């Protein structure tokens, strides 16, 4: 019988000693639970992904010292498998170590290096060449790292040939919608091909635009899911494996949509704020649904005392907007300051009277208002040390329906990857959790979206309804389908062409956007690397 | 005798038909000159780098059609070698085609795919497996693409074995300081190893943060540089090769530093403006050296009629600053509008009186002023369709001595990769070109740098002198040296630690910065992918 502890922890990128501290504490809990080995996630020593930190030789040295330090500190306890950056004469490796009795007794080098989507591992690492099987408590355990499990081949074929009974797979696998199901499928495939137990250990936590959702699990050689750790929180799951049998504690079911999206947003926001040393966030409450939702998310994540809001009405704001903003703040019990922007706006108009003489008012005046609000929020950030949250959604970032340095201003944009229609879905779900009718007033959900930057403005003056817009964005951005293909599924070719052009032309804005949390298979940011200067203009007609 | 035309062109990313048009015109010039073949740069069909456009199947289809189209349109002329994206059952390839008599007669797939620095080629392409030698005018020519030439091995070893007399190497090789010398060295090494003529053809032009500087050349089998095309402009160089002999027109010498840097900045700025469809730029002239230099650069690049400036004095601006800004505009004959920001600033202070009650003025008030200026510049951009140029230098971006949404606001930041000390060097060089004492008044060069956001402020209140700061930035950012190593070369460890912390902590600002022109071996941006959330804090003491 082997007793394996799945150490689903939340390391911080770059915090080498902090991560050693964390693993030392968890290893001691695992030892107390009688585990033979505790398994930590991919690159748990450095945090994941360390990106170009790995290109600094001193950082790699310090990571190797940290691993030695972990080995020494845990010498009397159970064995440890953890992730670190190894260096050989072939280069740097994304590696797993087996640590036992204070020594590093085995090193495995990841064979498959992902270099797509958000991953750049071929930039910093070289491929490993061989499997690595170790003996523990009378059983053979194979080591593997993340992507190694995503396709047949090495090192799993070698473990199959050796009839290795248990393969450990340590991960830094980021969340997107539906990802837990994909992971379960690949774990099943590898279990069935290899005839081995698959012990899958994932990181949890937020790192810049990524959320690692946990969901560690144990899959039996027959492909059945036997045990799983929690999602979206740290967890130590102890599993006994003997032959075809296994025993572990039960955990609650993994959340379904849209709850899992909400949990991902909470984790991503909370870790970004905490790991960057902030104690408070500030955001503009417009009376619209996006800012109301971000306020709720922030309060659920950080607590009401760590969230403050500004309402910044202008001559174009309706009375209802200010009332609705005030009602949200009231229900959330957060501090709300009102700073009217009309006087400031008037003085700008005055200052520009001469150079703008003889021109027609338009977008310039609309954007000035949005940027006054951005400036005020940043002034609060500077004065009180609060991080500004930008409250724009994916639909707006996609088509550029947002003002650079205005409503796009902020240190973090939590719902940047959430399409508007999904914002409504999340609001309905969150309101259903209460208390009462929930934190977001019905009137906010019911009214037509408006930027309120000119009289009687509605989003639908400039954009198709979001029910029509969002599927086009999904098809073009996430699925890389051509305008022609999109129109062929029934949309008006002119509309598709217009939306696609808006998306292409907004690339320069997105390049200057705050980071936000990836929740779809393709988010804006490192996940989608489009040139700004791009003269490709495909048309939608066949 | 083979007559080869080196077609050093400036394609635009995504402009498939425009690039075909361009190559068709140049192929006809080459045909008139009696060339056997004209050689165009890497991925000339799509423009380089196409980044994730290549992940759209329809884009790859359209690029293949464009290549067919080029073949048909040039059927009666000389042969063509050009770069395109090929698709095989193994995946997508960064490829070179030989086009002859209206047909694609050979396809070569790049073997070495760079995946470091600014390059992500393993993200989108798969490696080629073999060399590709073609016969033309009685001689054998080997094909290769860019990175293939940067180290020994395939495909050059195969050409050496075959005794291929001429190897074509088509490139999308971006500029950085000293790069031309590096290229010459690798071309010599390959020539000597292979015993072949190396015909090196590079792109010219700007694409987002990259400048392709041209500098195409012909190196003889004995390693001597025989001919070179121009740098920083399009050029068609016709070379006759027979045995060990070659003939071509002379070109002027390549420019040395700092002129080459200035040429790179001109090309990068000019192409960014032109390829994104702008006809005018606008910038804030503070009276300081950075904005004065950017104004001169913009006028040299785009002409005085396409550049306008704003001077935006505040209560902390000296009379000299406004005079100096006015003098620069006068010398450059550009339109200068003055919009004083003090009234706007006062109304902001008034609006914030209540929420800021009981707090001390500080950074918040400084940044409000910078952001008022950003807002005004963006209003000009919105009203007149001019692109805003941000005028910050690399030293400021490195240590975060710049205001997000304030002086960092803009569509493009031309000197973002130019350290402050190099700005002065470039100013001295540019002034020496005249007319008279040059466009930048001596007083601007002589005065101590100041942000003028509070009374009597100097950059040296917050930062070490730039002569001391810039080498630390270079060592840490470009060379990836550790604080300890930097301090070991003689700098004060406390100072090094402070600078390194400033650099690390400004990552969140840089993530939202406008793109700018890479001129050093490591620029901020895609070249240096550091996590924002990063708790690695190495100290400088041994």
> Which shape of chain A, going by the Cα principal axes?
elongated
The radius of gyration of chain A is 26 Å
Number of helices of chain A: 18
User: What share of residues are in beta strands of chain A?
Assistant: 15-25%
CATH topology assignment of the largest domain in chain A:
Nitrilase/N-carbamoyl-D-aminoacid amidohydrolase
Oligomerization state:
homodimer
Highest CATH level, the class of the largest domain in chain A? Alpha Beta
Query: Biggest interface in this structure?
Result: A-B, 88 and 88 residues
How does CATH name the architecture of the largest domain in chain A? Answer: 4-Layer Sandwich
Provide the helix percentage of chain A: 25-40%
- SS-based class of chain A: alpha/beta
Written description of the protein model:
Two copies of one chain form a homodimer. By secondary structure, the first copy, chain A, is an alpha/beta fold. Chain A folds into two domains: 253 residues, 4-Layer Sandwich (Nitrilase/N-carbamoyl-D-aminoacid amidohydrolase); 252 residues, 3-Layer(aba) Sandwich (Rossmann fold), CATH 3.40.50.620. Chain A is built from 18 helices and 19 strands. In chain A, helix 9 packs across helix 10. Chain A is elongated and about 85 Å long. Chain A starts with a strand and ends in a 32-residue tail after the last helix. In chain A, 56% of the residues are buried. The mean pLDDT of chain A is 97. Chains A and B meet through helix 2, helix 6, helix 9 and helix 10 of A and helix 2, helix 6, helix 9 and helix 10 of B.
């Amino acid at each position: 019988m082997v007793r394996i502890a799945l150490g689903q922890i939340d390391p911080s990128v770059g915090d080498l000693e902090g991560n050693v501290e964390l693993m030392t504490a968890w290893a001691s809990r695992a030892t107390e639970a009688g585990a033979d080995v505790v398994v930590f996630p991919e690159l748990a020593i450095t945090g994941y992904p360390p990106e170009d930190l790995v290109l600094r030789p001193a950082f790699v040295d310090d990571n190797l010292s940290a691993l030695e330090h972990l080995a020494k500190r845990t010498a009397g306890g159970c064995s440890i498998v953890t992730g670190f950056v190894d260096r050989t004469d072939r280069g740097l490796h994304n590696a797993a170590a087996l640590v036992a009795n204070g020594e590093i007794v085995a090193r495995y080098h990841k064979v498959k290096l992902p270099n797509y989507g958000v991953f750049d591992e071929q930039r910093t690492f070289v491929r490993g060449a061989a499997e690595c099987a170790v003996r523990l408590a009378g059983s053979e355990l194979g080591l593997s790292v993340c992507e190694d499990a995503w396709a047949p081949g090495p090192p799993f074929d070698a473990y199959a040939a050796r009839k290795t009974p248990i393969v450990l797979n340590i991960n830094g696998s980021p969340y997107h919608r539906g990802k837990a199901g994909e992971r379960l499928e690949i774990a099943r495939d590898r279990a069935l091909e290899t005839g081995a137990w698959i012990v899958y250990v994932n990181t949890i936590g937020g790192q810049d635009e990524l959320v690692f959702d946990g969901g560690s699990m144990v899959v039996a050689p027959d492909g059945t899911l036997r045990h799983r750790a929690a999602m979206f929180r740290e967890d130590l799951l102890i599993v006994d494996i003997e032959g075809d049998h296994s025993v572990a504690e039960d955990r609650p079911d993994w959340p379904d949509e849209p709850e899992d999206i909400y949990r991902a947003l909470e984790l991503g926001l909370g870790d970004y704020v905490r790991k960057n040393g902030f104690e408070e966030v500030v955001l503009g409450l417009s009376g619209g649904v996006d800012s109301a939702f971000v306020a709720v998310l922030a309060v659920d994540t950080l607590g009401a005392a760590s969230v403050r809001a500004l309402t910044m009405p202008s001559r174009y704001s309706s009375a209802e907007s200010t009332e609705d903003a005030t009602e949200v703040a009231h229900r959330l019990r957060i501090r709300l300051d009102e700073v009217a922007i009309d006087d400031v706006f008037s003085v700008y108009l005055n200052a520009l009277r001469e150079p703008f003489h003889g021109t027609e008012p338009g977008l310039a005046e609309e954007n000035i208002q949005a940027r006054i609000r951005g400036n005020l929020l940043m002034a609060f950030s500077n004065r009180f040390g609060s991080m500004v949250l930008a409250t724009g959604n994916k639909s707006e970032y996609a088509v550029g329906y947002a003002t650079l340095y205005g409503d796009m201003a902020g240190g973090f944009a939590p719902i940047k990857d959430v399409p508007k229609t999904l914002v409504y879905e999340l609001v309905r779900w969150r309101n259903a959790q209460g208390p009462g009718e929930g934190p977001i007033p019905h009137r906010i959900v019911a009214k037509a979206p408006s930027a309120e930057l000119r009289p009687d403005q509605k989003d639908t003056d400039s954009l198709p309804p979001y029910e029509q817009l969002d599927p086009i964005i999904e098809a073009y951005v996430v699925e890389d389908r051509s305008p022609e293909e999109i129109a062929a599924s029934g949309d008006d070719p002119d509309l598709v062409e217009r939306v696609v052009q808006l998306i292409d032309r907004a690339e320069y804005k997105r390049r200057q956007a705050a980071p936000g949390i990836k929740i779809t298979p393709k988010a804006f940011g490192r996940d989608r690397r489009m040139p700004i200067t791009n003269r490709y203009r495909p048309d939608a007609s066949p």
